[in-house]
């Protein structure tokens, strides 16, 4: 049931309205002035405000404008015993949904309340639809940073060609979202998008899953099974975690990509399949080819169009938008009162390093929403270690060491520690660590040897 806030400096009027609305099944809170009302609104999720126009300290119109500025769009019904055409026009221009003259009949109040709550539902539905449309247009990729805008531009260009696409990104950055955006923006959007996680299967099971098998091909193969390459015919096959693809199966995959045909396990017939391959990994495939862990010819076959998803720490300006998206979605699903982020909360979120990227942010917001009891999410609602980030530490700041050695030695220590930190944040992938540090990969390898880190 809707939660209504009644604001009036006349205690008797608050009592009368509270009883009237309570008898209709509404949840009602009261406040003697706008300042007390703002405190209630910061704690509770309010659906409608009934406010007197003339109050000491702050008028109803000033209160309405402050709520719009600090909290957002909430329907207002304004009451006054001093009605004029001018005040009525001012109220409606400021955003009030209705304007009633005291004394009011009960039927008149209830009709205005129902009309305002209908407006509130329509407002919420429209806002949710706009958010869903915005997310849908970008394939679910949320952000306005230059890095995300470039990624979306690259996705749009890559979607128009048939070439294989290789997506690089740390764990939790949203590689599958990019793969889906590619598929739905391209000519194959009406056909199947088939996903296989290469790290989720043992070698023999992955071969059967991808290529299919004939009846009797191995123990337990009691009937023929179509492989995912066959299922995806005409559409897109997304090979997630391609860096984990078994070396022994890579020649068979390479042949299927080159010739668009393959054989099922235990079969002799050639099966044709027109699929577009999109692969993703968090690993440095170039380095894996150098060590023999990944076939060079398969790498170049996949590495036609390359899309790199930036980690969350490299697009901190997107964090408020992402956090608010996850917060409102979680609040809607869990039916929780929280609907906004306090400025201090945004600051904490932007200061944290997010080693788990967008997936970690999503989990943090879900947990915070679950335990929050107020309309605005505060820093105290954030779980550790996100909520423990010092407020006076700027993103990327490092601790200054004690002056216990000459400057060159101190610089070496700091350089060594920064390299270690970069390798930890990138899961040991040297190419990504070098990019994070702003140096070339060969320079990073030189420094690794210099500091005896390899």
From TrEMBL:
<protein>
    <recommendedName>
        <fullName>Chemotaxis protein CheY</fullName>
    </recommendedName>
</protein>
<dbReference type="GO" id="GO:0005737">
    <property type="term" value="C:cytoplasm"/>
</dbReference>
<dbReference type="InterPro" id="IPR025662">
    <property type="entry name" value="Sigma_54_int_dom_ATP-bd_1"/>
</dbReference>
<dbReference type="InterPro" id="IPR025943">
    <property type="entry name" value="Sigma_54_int_dom_ATP-bd_2"/>
</dbReference>
<dbReference type="GO" id="GO:0000160">
    <property type="term" value="P:phosphorelay signal transduction system"/>
</dbReference>
<keyword id="KW-0805">Transcription regulation</keyword>
<dbReference type="Pfam" id="PF00072">
    <property type="entry name" value="Response_reg"/>
</dbReference>
<feature type="domain" description="Sigma-54 factor interaction">
    <location>
        <begin position="141"/>
        <end position="370"/>
    </location>
</feature>
<keyword id="KW-0067">ATP-binding</keyword>
<dbReference type="GO" id="GO:0006355">
    <property type="term" value="P:regulation of DNA-templated transcription"/>
</dbReference>
<keyword id="KW-0804">Transcription</keyword>
<dbReference type="InterPro" id="IPR003593">
    <property type="entry name" value="AAA+_ATPase"/>
</dbReference>
<dbReference type="Pfam" id="PF02954">
    <property type="entry name" value="HTH_8"/>
</dbReference>
<feature type="modified residue" description="4-aspartylphosphate">
    <location>
        <position position="52"/>
    </location>
</feature>
<keyword id="KW-0597">Phosphoprotein</keyword>
<keyword id="KW-0238">DNA-binding</keyword>
<dbReference type="InterPro" id="IPR025944">
    <property type="entry name" value="Sigma_54_int_dom_CS"/>
</dbReference>
<keyword id="KW-0547">Nucleotide-binding</keyword>
<dbReference type="InterPro" id="IPR002078">
    <property type="entry name" value="Sigma_54_int"/>
</dbReference>
<dbReference type="Pfam" id="PF00158">
    <property type="entry name" value="Sigma54_activat"/>
</dbReference>
<dbReference type="InterPro" id="IPR011006">
    <property type="entry name" value="CheY-like_superfamily"/>
</dbReference>
<dbReference type="InterPro" id="IPR002197">
    <property type="entry name" value="HTH_Fis"/>
</dbReference>
<dbReference type="InterPro" id="IPR058031">
    <property type="entry name" value="AAA_lid_NorR"/>
</dbReference>
<dbReference type="Pfam" id="PF25601">
    <property type="entry name" value="AAA_lid_14"/>
</dbReference>
<dbReference type="InterPro" id="IPR001789">
    <property type="entry name" value="Sig_transdc_resp-reg_receiver"/>
</dbReference>
<feature type="domain" description="Response regulatory">
    <location>
        <begin position="3"/>
        <end position="117"/>
    </location>
</feature>
<keyword id="KW-0963">Cytoplasm</keyword>
<dbReference type="GO" id="GO:0005524">
    <property type="term" value="F:ATP binding"/>
</dbReference>
<dbReference type="InterPro" id="IPR009057">
    <property type="entry name" value="Homeodomain-like_sf"/>
</dbReference>
<dbReference type="InterPro" id="IPR027417">
    <property type="entry name" value="P-loop_NTPase"/>
</dbReference>
<dbReference type="GO" id="GO:0043565">
    <property type="term" value="F:sequence-specific DNA binding"/>
</dbReference>
<keyword id="KW-0902">Two-component regulatory system</keyword>
<keyword id="KW-0010">Activator</keyword>
């Amino acid at each position: 049931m809707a939660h209504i806030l009644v604001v009036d400096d006349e205690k008797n009027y608050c009592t009368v309205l509270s009883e009237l609305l309570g008898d209709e099944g509404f949840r009602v809170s009261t406040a003697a002035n706008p300042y007390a009302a703002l405190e209630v609104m910061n704690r509770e999720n309010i659906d409608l405000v009934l406010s007197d126009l003339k109050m000491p300290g702050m008028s109803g119109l000033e209160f309405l404008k402050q709520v719009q500025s600090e909290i957002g769009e909430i329907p207002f019904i304004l009451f006054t015993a001093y009605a004029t055409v001018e005040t009525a026009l001012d109220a409606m221009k400021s955003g009030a949904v209705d304007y009633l003259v005291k004394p009011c009949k009960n039927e008149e109040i209830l009709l205005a309340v129902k009309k305002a709550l209908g407006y509130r539902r329509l407002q919420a539905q429209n806002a949710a639809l706009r958010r869903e449309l915005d997310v849908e247009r970008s394939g679910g990729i949320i952000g306005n940073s230059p890095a995300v805008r470039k990624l979306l531009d690259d996705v749009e260009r890559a979607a128009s060609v048939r070439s294989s696409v290789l997506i690089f990104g740390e764990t939790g950055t949203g590689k599958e979202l990019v793969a889906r955006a590619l598929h739905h923006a391209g000519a194959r959007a009406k056909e199947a998008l088939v996903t296989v996680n290469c790290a989720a299967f043992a070698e023999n099971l992955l071969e059967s899953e991808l290529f299919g098998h004939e009846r009797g091909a191995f123990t337990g193969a009691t009937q023929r099974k179509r492989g995912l390459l066959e299922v995806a015919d005409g559409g897109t096959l997304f090979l997630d975690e391609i860096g984990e693809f078994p070396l022994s199966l890579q020649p068979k995959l390479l042949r299927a990509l080159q010739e668009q045909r393959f054989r099922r396990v235990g079969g002799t017939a050639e099966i044709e399949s027109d699929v577009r391959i999109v692969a993703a990994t968090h690993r440095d495939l170039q380095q894996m080819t150098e060590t023999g862990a990944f076939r060079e010819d398969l790498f170049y076959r996949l590495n036609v169009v390359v899309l790199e998803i930036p980690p969350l720490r490299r697009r901190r300006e997107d964090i408020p938008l992402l956090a608010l998206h996850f917060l409102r979605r979680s609040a809607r699903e869990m039916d929780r009162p929280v609907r906004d982020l306090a400025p201090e909360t945004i600051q904490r979120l932007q200061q944290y390093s997010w080693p788990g990227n967008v997936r970690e942010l999503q989990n943090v917001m879900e947990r915070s929403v679950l335990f929050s009891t107020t309309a605005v999410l505060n820093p105290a609602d954030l779980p550790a270690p996100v909520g423990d980030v010092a407020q006076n530490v700027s993103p990327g700041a490092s601790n200054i060491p004690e002056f216990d050695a000459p400057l060159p030695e101190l610089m070496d220590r700091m350089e060594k520690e920064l390299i270690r930190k970069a390798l930890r944040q990138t899961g040991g992938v040297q190419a990504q660590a070098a990019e994070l540090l702003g140096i070339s990969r060969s320079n990073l390898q030189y420094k690794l040897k210099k500091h005896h880190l390899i």
